[in-house]
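Thread title: Can someone regenerate the structure for this chain?

I was given the following input by a collaborator and told the matching structure tokens would be attached. They weren't. Posting the sequence so someone can regenerate them.
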Amino acid sequence: MIEIMIVKLGTIGLDIAKYTFHLFSVNKMGRLIKKKQLKRKQVLAYFAKLEPCLIAMEACGGANYWARELIALGHEVKLIAPQYVKPFVKGNKNDFNDAEGITEAAHDQICDLCRSDALSNKIFRIFTANVSV
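Best answer:
Regenerated them for you:
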């Protein structure tokens, strides 16, 4: 009898670019599950099919847009400043190595300081703007 094992995703490191996105997904134990390249049009459809998980991205100009879209799909998003990601990138500079470095930086305790939740920040700004001192 063949047993089918469903592997739950722990963290996905997403390296975003202009046309192609690279993801590196690991389970809760930190073992590689999948490396995948996606085109811009495929990103939201791909993540809509996944169970909610932690998605880590390097903070850049387009990261806030993708964070809002992924949060709307039910995922938890963590934006990490580039200076925290660089020490975790192994080997030569390429997109898959960057995605792996982002995944590893997401688990580092120092990077919890730069955690960003786009919707929470937006709600906080709206709330504080309406409160008069």
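Residues 1-6 have pLDDT under 50 and may be disordered.
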